[in-house]
Specification:
There is one protein chain. Strands 3, 4, 5, 6, 7, 14 and 15 form a seven-stranded mixed β-sheet that branches. This protein has a six-stranded parallel β-sheet with strand order 10-9-8-11-12-13, with helices on both faces. It has a two-stranded antiparallel ribbon with strand order 1-2. The protein folds into two domains: about 170 residues, Quinone Oxidoreductase, Chain A, domain 1, CATH 3.90.180; about 140 residues, Rossmann fold (3-Layer(aba) Sandwich). The chain has about 350 residues and is of the alpha/beta class. Helix 5 packs across helix 6 and helix 5 packs across helix 10. InterPro entries: ADH-like_N, Chloroplast_QOR, ER, GroES-like_sf, NAD(P)-bd_dom_sf.
């Protein structure tokens, strides 16, 4: 008889993923299938997971989302990409991970068998041994948000650079502030009034309250005063003209990193077309963690966390049965840091 497990599932996204999630204790557990026997995967018993906008954006995307999250073995799909847990079983050729070992990481893409479940099959390439002393709830937030922040900043700065992070109190933004400061950068952020204190506690040197000031005007004033930025990381996607006006506050050799930017025709044209065809005047790059697996990034993030150089900012924690409520909160905005779902027991 097939093993059953606890999970949250959905069979439709009509009206939004959060309105369709259902908690069950009778979901079909993943099997030690041919992939695992070939050594391609390990099975993890999930302790904690964190949720991301990708969890709903992908299944709610027509055609592509359905193709990626369709299940061939069940009528229902399970969301979630980030996790921390313990190894339940491994493929026959895997000798780098031991049964019972604590690990953290993320799935390489959204699938129908996500991490908001008691058990999940994981690609060992993004399955990282948990450093001693790191809280599983905290490690569970590193996968998408931590790695996105790492890829946005680490390859693009040197000590002394001026960095602007649009959306400093977001999950990616809170890690971005800490990473940029760790690398010796001057950091300016945008956030709401409620996020100002948090961003400054994390190390931000300057913060613009987008509810009270025109962020683009403040950035342009920085450029005029002789303090343009070396790097801009847009975690939010608004204001809409942030990139179009970047030549007024970003150095000629600077770079504009898009994470939360909108991908409508106008925005894509501005970021990709040559200037004479209506494109922007500064180099633009979109960072997406689904484009390849960078195991070393996740390893470094875990080391920094173990050493106390970065920390997880957890907005709230929910039991697995209340995952729908958690997604509703995340989708509504104004979340500071990450939302964690407690799937199983730590011990």
């Amino acid at each position: 008889m097939a093993q059953r497990m606890r999970a949250v599932q959905y069979t439709s996204v009509q009206g939004g993923l959060e309105k369709n999630l259902r908690y069950t204790e009778d979901a079909l557990a993943p099997q030690h299938d041919e992939q695992m026997q070939r050594g391609d995967h390990v099975m993890v018993e999930v302790i904690s997971a964190s949720i991301n906008p990708l969890d709903w954006k992908m299944p709610e995307t027509p055609v592509l989302g359905k193709a990626l999250t369709y299940s061939f073995t069940s009528a229902a799909s399970i969301p979630g990409m980030d996790y921390c847990g313990r190894i339940k079983s491994t493929g026959s050729t895997i000798d780098s991970l031991a049964i019972g070992e604590m690990v953290y990481g993320r799935l390489t893409r959204p699938t129908s068998s996500g991490t908001l479940a008691q058990y999940v099959n994981i690609d060992p390439g993004t399955c990282i041994p948990l450093p001693q002393g790191v809280n599983p709830d905290h490690a569970a937030t590193l996968g998408i948000a931590g790695e996105t922040a790492y890829r946005s900043i680490v390859p693009n700065v040197q000590s002394g650079d001026r960095v602007f992070i649009n959306g400093g109190s977001s999950g990616t933004g809170t890690y971005g502030i800490q990473i940029a400061k760790l690398l010796g950068c001057h950091v300016t952020v945008s956030c709401s009034t409620a996020g100002m204190e948090l961003c400054k506690e994390l190390g931000a040197d300057q913060a613009f309250d987008y509810t009270k000031t025109d962020v683009i005007a403040e950035l342009i004033e920085s450029g005029k005063s002789g303090e343009p930025f070396d790097l801009v990381v847009d975690d939010v996607g608004v204001p809409a003209d942030l990139y179009n006006e970047s030549h007024l506050y970003l150095k000629p050799e600077g770079k504009f990193i898009s994470i939360g930017s909108k991908n409508d025709i106008r925005s894509l044209a501005a970021r990709t077309l040559p200037t004479f065809m209506g494109g922007g005047r500064r180099k633009s790059e979109q960072v997406h963690v689904l484009l390849g697996s960078h195991r070393d990034d996740l390893v470094q993030l875990g080391r920094w966390m173990a050493d106390g150089k970065i920390k997880a900012v957890i907005d709230s924690t929910y039991p697995l049965a209340d995952a729908a409520e958690a997604y509703g909160k995340l989708k509504g905005g104004h979340v500071h840091g990450k939302i964690v779902i407690r799937v199983g027991a730590k011990q």
